[in-house]
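Backbones bend. To wit:
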Amino acid sequence: MEELFRDWAGVVRKLGKLPSIAEYESLGKYSQGPLTRRFASWLHVPKAMKKFAEQQDWAGEWKEVLEMVDESDGAARRGVKKSGPWNVTQAGRPKPTNVYGPPIQTKAMSHGPTNEAGVMVLFGMLAEELGFAVTLVQTGYPDCEAMRQREEDRFERLRIEFEYESRNFVQHEHDASECDMIVCWKHNWPECPLEVVELRKAVAEIVRA
């Protein structure tokens, strides 16, 4: 536990904020697995680490790290969203302008997605061309179920999770054993244990054809 704390706290100190799962796995010595198994969820890790440091009388050595835990916990209770080095309430944020993805030149969608919802819409449009027949879409995990033909008279059922970037699957703490495929716009998780359909490449191939 001492090694895990020093590794996690070192990443916090380096980033100047509490790390996401992806940030911790990129910068830390260990994976997020030992921490999420100990504390049930990545969201519980900061409080548990703060408690451990206090029990070890390390509050002085890791003062700024523990302060960041307190700040994050206080912001969550007040409904404040942390953005960069500043805490900005949703009401106080400037109204965003419309943001579009890159032009993709498909018949019914002029620009690529910029979020997970856009990935789901685009997949629904292209499913038939990609060889899928959607059988179920749900609000629970995984997002979708679809059939894919493997042989002339053989089909397979696939459990699909939509992500804007494949790496988001890790950040969302999904269980890979309950999913067969990630459909995303951008594939940036080389070690992904699941099959991945990267829609930006699929669209480029369809347009070229």
Notes: Strands lie at 81-83, 86-88, 132-137, 144-151, 154-165, 181-186, 195-198. The helical segments are 2-15, 21-27, 33-39, 45-55, 63-78, 116-130, 168-171, 199-208.
